C-alpha cells in the first residue's frame, strides 16, 4: 500500500503538478499513437513543452508586476488583509500528501469516466488548477468533516474533483462553441461561473456582429489603441502611476527597490506597466506555440485511446481570439473590485485584498465570453460580474476557511467559492458522519448528466441523418 501511495504522490508532484511535462507527455503519446516519424514525435513534443514554458514565463513576467500593483493599490486604499491564526503554508504542510493523492486518483477516475461515456468529450488538462481544485476540496472536507482520516479524504475528495473536471468543460461548451466553432478544445478554468453568468446575462445587450471589440472603429488619433500591446501598456501604466501617487511612499519605495534600488518610484510604475504588456505578449506567443502541437497531437488519443475526446485547456488558450475584450474585462473587473473595496472599508465590513492575478484571468475570460455574445457591452458586463463575484466571494468565504487556509478566499477564482459553499451546504448531513455522500452524489449526478447528453447527441445525429438525403436531393435538383 505504501508503494502505491508513493507512486501516486510522485505522479501528482512530477507529472500532473508540472504542466509543461504533462502537456509534453500527452503530445508525445498522441504523436506516437498516430505513428508519426521519430523526428516528428520528438520535435512536436518539445515544441508543445517549450510553448507551455514560454506561456508560464509570460505569466511570471506580468504576475510579478501584478503582485507589486496589488501591494501599491492596497496601500493607496489604506487596506490590509485581516489577521488569520492559520495559513495556507501550514495547511499544505499537514495535508499536502492528501492533496497529491486526490489529484492522482481523481485524474484516473476522470479518465475512466471520459472513456466510458462518449458524451463527456473533454479531458481536463489544466495542471495547476488540478492542484488548486483539489486543495479547495480537501480544505472544505476538513472543515465539514474534521475527524475524517486520510483515506476518506482522498476517496471522497477524488470522487468530487473527478466529477467537477468532467462536468466543467461541458457546461462551458455552448459558450465555447461561439469562441471555437470547430470545437478543437474545451475550456478548463475555474472562472467558469463568472463566464456562464456573463454569457447568459449579456444576451439582451446586443450582438457580437455589431459590437465586436476587435472591430471597434476609433478616431484616427486613437487608432493606436487597436494594438493590444500598446493599449495594455498605456492603461496599466496609467493605473499604476495613479496608485503610486496615492500610496504610502515607503511601500512604493520598497516595491521599486525590489526591481532596482536606484529607481524612481514613478519610473518603476511605468516599467511595471510596460513589463505587464510584455508579459501578455509572451503569454499569447506561448499559447499559439503549444496549441499548434497539442491539438493535432491529441488526435492520437481521440482516435485510439479515448474515442472522440478533445483536450480541455487553460483560459489563456482563448485569449488570442479577442485580446481587446480580455483587457476590457480585466480593467472593468479591477475598477468594480476597487469600488467594492472602498465601500466595504467605509462601512467597516471585511477588509478586501485586491487579487490582481485573479482579476486579470477571471475578468479577462468573462470579458471575452461576454464579447462573443454581445460585443463590447458583454465584455464590460463580464468585468462587472467578475469584480462583484471576487469581492463578495472574498468577503464571505474568509471565515469558511479560517481554521484551515483562509488565503484560499483571497487567491480564489469564482468556482472555488462555489465548491466551498456547495460542500458547506452539506454540513448538516456530513456532520452526522455521511461524508461518503459527497462523492456518491457528485458521481451519480455526473453519470446522469452524461447519459442524458448521450441520448440527446444520438437524437441529434439521427435527425441529421434523416435530413441529409433530402438536402442531397434538393442540391441535385
TrEMBL record:
Keyword Acetylation part of the UniProt annotation: no
Q: Which UniProt keywords apply?
A: Cell membrane, Membrane, Phosphotransferase system, Sugar transport, Transmembrane, Transmembrane helix, Transport
Transmembrane as UniProt keyword: yes
- The organism's superkingdom is given as Bacteria
Position of the signal peptide? none
Q: Which InterPro entries does the entry link to?
A: Ascorbate-PTS_EIIC, PTS_sugar-sp_permease
Q: Name one Pfam family in it.
A: EIIC-GAT
- Compartment annotation: Cell membrane
Transmembrane segment boundaries: 15-33, 45-66, 97-117, 129-145, 151-171, 228-246, 266-287, 325-350, 356-373, 380-401, 433-453
In what way does this protein cross or attach to the membrane?
Answer: Multi-pass membrane protein
Matching PANTHER family, A to Z?
Answer: ASCORBATE-SPECIFIC PTS SYSTEM EIIC COMPONENT
Give the quaternary structure: Homodimer.
Describe its function: The phosphoenolpyruvate-dependent sugar phosphotransferase system (sugar PTS), a major carbohydrate active transport system, catalyzes the phosphorylation of incoming sugar substrates concomitantly with their translocation across the cell membrane. The enzyme II UlaABC PTS system is involved in ascorbate transport.
Q: Report the sequence similarity comment from the record.
A: Belongs to the UlaA family.
Q: What is this protein called?
A: Ascorbate-specific PTS system EIIC component
Organism from which the protein derives: Actinomadura napierensis
Amino acid at each position: 500500500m505504501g508503494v502505491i501511495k508513493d507512486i501516486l504522490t510522485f505522479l501528482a508532484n512530477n507529472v500532473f503538478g508540472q504542466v509543461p511535462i504533462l502537456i509534453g507527455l500527452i503530445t508525445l503519446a498522441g504523436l506516437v499513437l498516430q505513428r508519426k516519424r521519430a523526428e516528428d514525435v520528438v520535435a512536436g513534443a518539445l515544441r508543445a513543452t517549450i510553448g507551455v514554458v514560454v506561456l508560464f514565463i509570460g505569466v511570471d513576467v506580468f504576475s510579478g508586476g501584478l503582485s507589486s500593483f496589488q501591494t501599491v493599490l492596497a496601500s493607496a486604499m489604506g487596506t490590509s488583509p485581516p489577521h488569520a491564526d492559520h495559513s495556507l503554508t501550514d495547511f499544505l504542510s499537514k495535508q499536502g500528501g492528501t492533496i497529491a493523492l486526490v489529484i492522482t486518483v481523481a485524474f484516473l477516475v476522470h479518465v475512466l469516466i471520459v472513456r466510458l461515456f462518449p458524451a463527456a468529450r473533454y479531458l481536463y488538462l489544466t495542471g495547476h488548477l488540478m492542484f488548486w481544485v483539489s486543495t479547495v476540496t480537501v480544505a472544505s472536507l476538513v472543515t465539514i468533516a474534521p475527524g475524517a482520516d486520510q483515506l476518506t479524504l482522498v476517496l471522497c475528495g477524488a470522487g468530487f474533483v473527478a466529477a467537477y473536471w468532467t462536468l466543467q468543460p461541458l457546461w462551458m461548451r455552448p459558450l465555447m462553441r461561439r469562441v471555437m466553432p470547430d470545437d478543437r478544445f474545451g475550456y478548463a478554468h475555474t472562472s467558469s461561473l463568472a463566464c456562464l453568468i456573463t454569457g447568459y446575462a449579456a444576451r439582451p445587450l446586443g450582438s457580437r456582429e455589431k459590437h465586436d471589440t476587435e472591430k471597434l472603429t476609433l478616431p484616427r488619433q486613437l487608432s493606436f489603441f487597436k494594438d493590444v500591446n500598446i493599449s495594455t501598456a498605456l492603461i496599466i501604466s496609467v493605473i499604476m502611476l495613479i496608485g503610486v501617487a496615492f500610496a504610502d511612499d515607503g511601500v512604493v519605495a520598497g516595491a521599486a527597490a525590489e526591481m532596482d534600488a536606484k529607481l524612481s518610484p514613478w519610473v518603476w510604475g511605468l516599467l511595471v506597466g510596460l513589463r505587464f504588456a510584455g508579459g501578455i505578449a509572451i503569454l499569447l506567443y506561448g499559447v499559439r506555440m503549444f496549441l499548434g502541437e497539442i491539438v493535432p497531437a491529441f488526435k492520437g488519443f481521440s482516435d485510439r485511446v479515448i474515442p472522440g475526446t478533445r483536450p480541455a485547456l487553460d483560459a489563456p488558450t482563448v485569449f488570442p481570439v479577442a485580446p481587446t475584450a480580455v483587457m476590457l474585462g480585466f480593467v472593468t473587473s479591477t475598477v468594480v473590485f476597487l469600488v467594492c473595496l472602498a465601500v466595504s472599508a467605509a462601512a467597516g465590513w471585511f477588509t478586501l485584498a485586491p487579487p490582481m492575478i485573479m482579476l486579470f484571468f477571471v475578468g479577462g475570460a468573462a470579458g471575452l465570453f461576454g464579447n462573443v455574445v454581445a460585443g463590447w457591452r458583454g465584455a464590460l458586463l463580464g468585468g462587472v460580474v467578475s469584480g462583484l463575484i471576487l469581492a463578495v466571494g472574498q468577503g464571505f468565504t474568509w471565515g469558511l476557511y479560517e481554521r484551515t487556509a483562509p488565503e484560499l478566499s483571497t487567491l480564489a477564482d469564482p468556482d472555488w467559492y462555489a465548491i466551498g459553499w456547495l460542500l458547506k451546504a452539506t454540513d448538516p448531513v456530513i456532520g452526522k458522519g455521511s461524508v461518503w455522500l459527497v462523492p456518491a452524489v457528485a458521481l451519480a449526478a455526473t453519470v446522469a448528466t452524461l447519459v442524458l447528453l448521450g441520448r440527446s447527441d444520438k437524437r441529434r445525429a439521427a435527425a441529421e441523418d434523416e435530413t441529409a438525403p433530402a438536402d442531397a436531393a434538393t442540391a441535385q435538383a
